[in-house]
């Protein structure tokens, strides 16, 4: 963690204020209140009659460990740009956040809600994980889509819903995700799931193609899915068009979500309050195999900790990125779980500095665990 802290220290302004000590909060500041259900711990057995109260045995159960919220607040204050951070103890009773109720671009973080919507349909018997889905040239999207090479080589690829979930989450494949989205009923199906589960301040956009083209100031054409056609069309736009589209997106992101709402949703997922036990176990297993973002939150956790997550990264414009995120569930060696969310809505910090911030946040959770 010392390495991450040193890297971070080099990227912040020396004039930044060190926050004054403040009382740790039991609810995120400015966040929409979202019901999360009773705390459930899988790490320890039920308390015996006449045993000490949970908060005596485990002081971190009811309130954050002393110093954790101040440490994260300092990281938040000294990092350039718009940053949102939320931490919630899954098997406890506390949470806190910085800018927890504001909307941040999710980008590929939103793939998680697609997977949940699909699995909810599986739980209801409306869909099967073994269902076969055809993917052809007209289904290709843009940016990261390893599936595209197979489609172009074979003309058509057929994959099961199960394999599409694995590919969309672990490899953040945009075509796999949009294929799932099409199969489950489109963006409205995901929005209905979010509303039905009362997930709070979480939006779902129009799908990868329309989201990315609108963010750049373009109208989608299927030809943009070929090679670098999208990047070339974007580069040909007047700078004023790109800037206006980007600023409009950041001011009111169509795929925006509040960090505190995401932390609450992760908590409810881990507690088994969103999906069936089978689907919960399956999705968390998939998230544990995520390949993207190995140097984001995951890299700040010491040996012995486990992490399951989903990253999200938006388009670059003159060195700034509209959405650079990592959200996930960290599990300590003793089984205690934390939902950790870091979202960079807009920042001029270098990529190594962004990763150092994320490592510092997850590292702080690990450092203060049990204190």
Automatic annotation (TrEMBL):
It catalyses: a beta-lactam + H2O = a substituted beta-amino acid. GO terms for molecular function: beta-lactamase activity. Transmembrane segments: none annotated. It comes from Sphingopyxis terrae subsp. ummariensis. Signal peptide: none annotated. Belongs to the class-A beta-lactamase family. Residues 26-64 are annotated as: Disordered. Its EC number is 3.5.2.6. Pfam families: Beta-lactamase2. Residues 84-343 form the Beta-lactamase class A catalytic domain. This is beta-lactamase. GO terms for biological process: beta-lactam antibiotic catabolic process; response to antibiotic.
């Amino acid at each position: 963690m010392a390495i991450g802290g040193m890297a971070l220290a080099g990227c912040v302004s020396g004039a930044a204020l060190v926050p004054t000590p403040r009382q740790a909060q039991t609810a995120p500041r400015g966040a929409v209140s979202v019901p999360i259900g009773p705390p459930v711990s899988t790490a320890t057995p039920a308390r015996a009659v006449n045993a000490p109260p949970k908060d005596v045995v485990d002081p971190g159960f009811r309130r954050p460990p002393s110093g954790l919220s101040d440490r994260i607040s300092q990281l938040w204050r000294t990092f350039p740009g718009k940053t949102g951070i939320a931490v919630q103890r899954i098997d406890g009773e506390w949470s806190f956040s910085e800018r927890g109720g504001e909307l941040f671009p999710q980008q590929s973080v939103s793939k998680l809600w697609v997977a949940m919507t699909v699995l909810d349909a599986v739980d209801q018997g409306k869909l099967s994980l073994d269902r076969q889905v055809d993917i052809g040239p007209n289904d290709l999207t843009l940016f990261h889509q390893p599936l595209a090479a197979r489609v172009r080589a074979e003309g058509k690829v057929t994959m099961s819903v199960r394999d599409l979930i694995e590919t969309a989450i672990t490899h953040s494949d945009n075509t796999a995700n949009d294929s799932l989205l099409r199969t489950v009923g489109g963006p409205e199906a995901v929005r209905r799931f979010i509303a039905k589960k009362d997930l709070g301040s979480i939006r779902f956009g129009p799908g990868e193609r329309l989201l990315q083209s609108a963010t750049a100031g373009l109208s989608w054409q299927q030809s943009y899915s070929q090679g670098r056609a999208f990047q070339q069309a974007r580069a040909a736009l007047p700078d004023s068009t790109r800037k206006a589209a980007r600023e409009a997106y950041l001011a009111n992101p169509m795929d925006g979500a509040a960090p505190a709402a995401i932390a609450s949703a992760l908590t409810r997922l881990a507690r088994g309050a969103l999906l069936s036990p089978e689907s919960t176990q399956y999705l968390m297993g998939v998230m544990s195999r995520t390949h993207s973002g190995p140097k984001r939150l995951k890299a700040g956790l010491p040996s012995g900790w486990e992490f399951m997550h989903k990253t999200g990264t938006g388009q670059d414009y003159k060195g700034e990125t509209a959405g650079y995120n990592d959200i996930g569930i960290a599990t300590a060696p003793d089984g205690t779980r934390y939902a950790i969310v870091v979202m960079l809505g807009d920042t001029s910090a270098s990529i190594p500095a962004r990763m150092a911030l994320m490592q510092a946040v997850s590292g702080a959770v690990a450092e203060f665990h049990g204190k």
